[in-house]
Amino acid sequence: MDIRQLKYFIAVAEELSFRRAAERLYITQPPLSQQIRQLEEELDTQLLIRNTRQVSLTPAGEYFLGKARNIIRDTDQARYEVRDLGKQQQQKIRIGYSGTSTFVAPVMQRLKEYAAQQSGVSLHMVCGNATELQQKLLSDQLDLALIRNSQPPASPDLLYHHISEEQLYVLALADHPLMQQTIVHPRQLESCALVTYSRTDNTSLRLRIDHYLKENHCSPGNIIEVSDISAMINMVQFGLGVAILPESVARSFSEQFAARPASGRENSIGLYLCMSGQSSDIARHLFDKLQ
């Protein structure tokens, strides 16, 4: 006796017709009749009374119909519960990231390879600024974080790996005057509107840009603040200003815009992979893989 036979029997018992039951099950009548006969032989009991005009249930068939329905219901319920347990058992790694840290291709490639190899692990990505991400690591709300910053995390409770140090680039429309040269000097930015993150939305990159401008005695003509990279790119695309971004981010938009390195002092920003000292073994494994 198997589940398929029970479902076939229930269909015939409810339709009281082999033809209608076969249509309901999307099969032909011969295999349906064969499965019902095998079920009756296994039970050594006649379940159905067949004649040329109709099908009816024997007393044993009436009794077995209730049992068969219960078995199907319990089997379906068990299947759903087991699937839910499997999902709960799937391990989740919570990864925080600064707004521009996902543009670093080697890191994203390693993350992709890890996800493909670990079928029982799900990745949960959380965006935030450097301060927020470090706080979430320390409060066990995150397992790992990719953080843009000019300095490594100060907390002794955080482990970190310095992934890269990227030069700052100026991004603008290809026909912008600044793009007609190989390097952009800081003082040349004074004639431009600068599109950049607000200090609350991307603290570390904005602070680094502010520090870069101050160290090089530069005051842009106007500053347009945005909350995310999409808004920044749209502003640049419509010619409202230029943007200063890490090299990996600027180069990722090279088909739409032109990008030139920004010269001067303090013209780079780091990318750090950070982890709490209390992170799980699986988070530590990913920490090692992403380095």
Tell me what the structure shows:
Strands 3, 4, 5, 6, 7, 8, 9, 10 and 11 form a 9-stranded mixed β-sheet that branches. This protein has a two-stranded antiparallel ribbon with strand order 1-2. The chain has helices at 3-15, 18-25, 29-43, 59-89, 105-117, 130-138, 203-215, 229-237, 247-252, 281-290, and strands spanning 48-50, 55-57, 91-97, 121-127, 144-149, 158-172, 193-197, 222-226, 242-246, 258-261, 268-276. The protein has 3 domains: 3-87, Winged helix-like DNA-binding domain superfamily/Winged helix DNA-binding domain (Arc Repressor Mutant, subunit A), CATH 1.10.10; 91-164 and 271-290, 3-Layer(aba) Sandwich (D-Maltodextrin-Binding Protein, domain 2), CATH 3.40.190.10; 167-269, 3-Layer(aba) Sandwich (D-Maltodextrin-Binding Protein, domain 2), CATH 3.40.190.10. The chain contains 10 helices and 11 strands. A hairpin with a 4-residue loop joins strand 1 (48-50) and strand 2 (55-57). The protein is elongated. It has 291 residues and is an alpha/beta fold.
Quick recap of the structure?
It comes from Oceanospirillum sediminis. The chain is α/β, with parallel strands linked by helices.
